Automatic annotation (TrEMBL):
PANTHER family: RIBOSOMAL RNA SMALL SUBUNIT METHYLTRANSFERASE I, SAM-DEPENDENT METHYLTRANSFERASE. This is 16S rRNA (Cytidine1402-2'-O)-methyltransferase. It comes from the Bacteria. GO terms for molecular function: methyltransferase activity. Transmembrane segments: none annotated. GO terms for biological process: methylation. It is an enzyme of class 2 (transferase). Keywords: Methyltransferase, Transferase.
Amino acid sequence: MLYLLPAYLSENSPKSAFAPEISEIILNVDHYIVENEKTARKMIKFYCPEKKQPELKLFLLNKNSTNADLKEIFGLMKSGTDVGLLSEAGLPCIADPGNIAVKWCHENSIKVIPINGPSSIILALISSGFNGQQFTFHGYLPIDKSEKRKKLLELEKLVEKTGYTQVFMETPYRNMPMIEDLCSSISGNTLLCIAANINDPNSEFIKTKKILDWKKNIPELHKVPAIFLIGK
């Protein structure tokens, strides 16, 4: 079996917010497909402190990985070994390369079991006040300033034309340039939601305002995990 295990969005998230079955699964599973070994070990310790770290066998999967890179762990699954899949944050396979492993499992009759957990994208959407019936997630926008501005204008037009909420994210250390580009590129009357540090009881920040109001008071979100939404 392949267990799709949720990762916390904040290290300050209360353990009580997660299903008890996560700890039980981790206690009984030694093999994991992960994006980052250090983060995965912290996550496993958070859920199940009694799990012996030396027992863990971690296999790295990133955006450049191929089936060939996971040949060993795929072979173990074929022989009956249960495996856990852990993202860097939130649910696996959303803004995360884990779908490579999931697709292989479907092609090789390995049972896939998703476990409930938080998704920053969905939590931001339901907290925004925007259309949750139709929306599009774009992942990361272009880094080049002119290309990014072109994309932002395109997303704004999509909102005006279709009413669909447009959702995207940025690398935390580029949040401030993103906010500045939003404020300088799109109409002052366009609504923008910024959802940052979701699930952190001490510093969660979720606000929806017009661009002209954001310009008056730009929040300091450097190196803070954030989701951006343009909508109606």
